[in-house]
Amino acid sequence: MKCAVYRSNKKDMTYLYLPEEDDMTRVPEALMNMISPVERVLEFELTPERRLAQEDAGEVLKHIEEQGWFLQMPRQDQPEFLC
Which domains does the chain have, with CATH numbers? Predict the structure, then answer.
């Protein structure tokens, strides 16, 4: 599946995965209001075998196929770094 990834400019470390570039018709309005504005940062072929940095590719594919999108949020168990 061709997948486009959008970064939220409002919520740090939050990414929206979509099956096609700029096809946000299935993303709930409330979610878009929470994370917008977004900007496209990546487009790639997503397969179950593909390695992703934070998520399981099979789970991402499953969510996209079932609901039309997948939201990656910051992991709660990661320590925040102090500057």
Answer: 2-72 (3.10.510.20)
